[in-house]
Structures are given as C-alpha cells and as structure tokens.
Design a protein that fits this description.
- The protein is α/β, with parallel strands linked by helices.
- It has a single domain (37-140), classed as Glycogen Phosphorylase B (Rossmann fold).
- Helix content is 40%, strand content 11%.
- It has 5 helices and 4 strands.
- It has helices at 2-7, 38-53, 76-89, 102-114, 127-136, and strands at residues 63-67, 93-97, 119-122, 139-140.
- Strands 3-2-1-4 form a 4-stranded parallel sheet.
- It is globular.
C-alpha cells in the first residue's frame, strides 16, 4: 500500500476499468448510450438481456442482477434464500451470473428450476453477459458477508 502511494499508483479496490465498462463504447452492449440517451438505452439493453437469457421480454418488469464469485464471503446462500419470497410477492426477474463452490452453483440452478419464468442462473464465466447485465439491469445485487 505504501509502495503504491510512493510510486503514485492509485486505484479503487474491487473497482472496474471505466474505459472497458463505458456504456458509450462498450462492445458487448446491444445499444450504446450516454447521459442523454440513458433511459432508452438502458431499456433497450434490458430487453436484449431478457431475450439473451430466455426471460420474458418486458421493460416494465424490474430486473435484478447478481454478478460475482459463489463463495461464502459473498453470501450467495443468503441471496438465494431470499429469492422465493421476492419472486412470490413481486413481479420481478432475477439474473444470476457466477461460478465458485459447487454447492452454491447447485443452489443457483435449483432456484432457476423452481422459478423458470422469473430466474435465470448462468454458472459459467461469461464476460459479455456480465457487461450486458450491468447495462440492462434495473437493480444490481451486491451481497457480502464482510
């Protein structure tokens, strides 16, 4: 940490490369957008994401996305346990992307099987899909135990 400070290197822990993830030029998006076109651009990316993962295409339905490692520290079991209550009471869609411990991968697939029209679980590394999820989701679920 001191070496970084002394050499002038700065960064954000767990941050993202702002040029790679810039929605004005991100090559993985269905539609690029900027601050003036964000509302329509996000809606179009949401529809493309819904189609890509096989969920009903409807820009009015809130879409929640989780992208992350399936490890204890990230709390995927807590999130997965909450999904039945969320989808039972709300008109919502959930897309989950991640790999990690096999028990969590199995839990993700099982929640998708229980709610096929509302939940999609992608248990493989898929960088383009991660970009599409960031651009198309209404809500990003960022879980962590610490």
């Amino acid at each position: 940490n001191n070496i970084m400070r002394l050499t002038g290197i700065t960064g954000i822990v767990n941050g993202m490369d702002v040029s790679e993830w810039d929605p004005t030029k991100d090559k993985f998006l269905a539609v690029n957008y900027d601050v003036t076109t964000a509302l329509e651009g996000k809606a179009l990316n949401k529809e493309a994401l819904q189609a890509e993962v096989g969920l009903p295409v409807d820009r009015k339905v809130p879409l929640v996305a989780f992208i992350g490692r399936l490890e204890e520290q990230k709390g995927p079991d807590v999130m997965i346990a909450a999904i039945p209550d969320i989808v039972k009471d709300e008109d919502v869609q959930i897309v989950l992307l991640g790999t990690g411990k096999k028990k969590f991968e199995r839990l993700l697939k099982s929640v998708e099987e229980k709610f096929p029209g509302k939940v999609r679980a992608v248990v493989r590394f898929n960088a383009p899909l991660a970009h599409q999820m960031m651009a198309g989701a209404d809500v990003l679920a960022v879980t962590s135990r610490f």
